[in-house]
Design a protein that fits this description.
Layout: H1 11-14, E1 24-28, H2 33-44, E2 48-53, H3 56-62, H4 64-69, E3 75-80, H5 86-99, E4 103-108, H6 126-141, E5 146-155, H7 179-201, E6 207-212, H8 226-244, H9 256-259, H10 261-269, H11 272-275, E7 279-281, E8 284-285, H12 305-319
Parallel strand pairs: 1-2, 1-4, 2-3, 4-5, 5-6, 6-7
Antiparallel strand pairs: 7-8
């Protein structure tokens, strides 16, 4: 009988007894937090990990534990990738394609959260441009390297509930900028990208999924003040109490190994048909949940197949590149 994992499961528990020797994995954002933990556990189980980061010096220092714990032939190679610059994204993708080495899993882990109003190097709103468009171009440019049976794992968030994508005004040109609305749009885009990528590639045995890691205290929240964090927690708890009569447990943070567990579960452990085209949380595929007070679940708009197709087309238009 398959082991059942949940919110408290860690990366080591999820991959216990799993030999990843010979598997090659790309993980973005390996300079801190979930990216480092994901790379660590994969290399410790024998995987060849290609870790992408904007600051290679920072990443090299942060991943010392990855190299120290690598086993069964596992290893780590670092490559430069600034998701806020399509020039950097394309250079990284082109170098990977030129090397010609296939991937078994791609984990799009890097991202920014609730950042001040700003623009990427290409003029996109920072969160949408970094979290979605950078990964959109990277993954599609290296899609030819994905083996049959491979998987794409996009890190989304429960923050997708803050907002659907706005295909008419993705850069807040006509809408007042709100950090969490922008974050929500980008996290919804991460799910919709997985939905459409899965539809386009599943006939070739390539599947895509999106995951919510849970609430974790990492560098992702560097733009949030302590007051903002406490206000967010109070909002979550108040909404849950209003919906559940006060019986809902208090909000609690996950550890980093618990937060990265759903990524490795979806990438290596879960059956492909269970997670393909889905949104996962706490090591399970989430159900549709429209209750605004509910902590778990996926909003219907974030997995709408027609919305996913429309976002794909809009994304191609924005980056000036078409992907078959």
């Amino acid at each position: 009988m398959a082991t059942t994992f949940g919110a408290q499961s860690t990366t080591d528990e999820v991959l216990a007894g799993t030999d990843l020797s010979g598997r090659r994995v790309l993980v973005t954002g390996v300079s801190a937090g979930l990216g480092v933990e994901t790379a660590r556990v994969l290399a410790a189980h024998g995987a060849t990990v290609v870790g992408a980061a904007r600051d290679l010096a920072k990443a090299k220092k942060a991943t010392e534990q990855v190299r120290a714990q690598a086993a069964k032939g596992g290893s780590l190679e670092l490559v430069e990738l600034d998701l806020a610059s399509l020039r950097s994204v394309r250079a990284c993708a082109d170098a990977l394609v030129a090397a010609g080495k296939a991937f078994d899993v791609v984990i799009c882990n890097a991202g920014v959260m609730a950042s001040p109003n700003g623009k990427t190097a290409d003029g996109f709103e920072t969160q949408f441009g970094t979290n979605h468009l950078g990964h959109f171009v990277l993954v599609n440019r290296i899609a030819k390297l994905l083996r049959a049976g491979s998987r794409l794992v996009n890190l989304s968030s429960a923050g997708h509930r803050f907002a659907d994508v706005d295909l008419d005004d993705p850069g807040f040109a006509r809408t007042p900028y709100e950090p969490f609305v922008a974050y929500g749009r980008s996290k919804t885009a991460n799910v919709l990208f997985a939905v459409e990528f899965d539809r386009r590639h599943k006939a070739q045995g390539i599947r895509a999924t999106a995951v919510h890691p849970g609430g974790i205290q990492t560098e992702l929240g560097r733009h949030m003040t302590p007051d903002m964090i406490q206000a967010m927690i109070r909002s979550i708890e108040d909404a849950a109490k209003a919906a559940g009569g006060g019986a809902t447990p208090a909000f609690s943070w996950k550890s980093i190994p618990q937060g990265a567990a759903t990524s490795v579960w979806a990438g290596f452990v879960a059956p492909a048909d269970l997670v393909g085209g889905k949104y996962c949380e706490d090591c399970h595929a989430a159900d549709i949940q429209e209750d605004p007070a509910a902590r778990g679940g996926i909003r219907r708009y974030a997995i709408d197949p027609e919305r996913a197709k429309a976002l794909w087309a809009k994304s191609e238009e924005m980056v000036g590149e078409r992907f078959s």
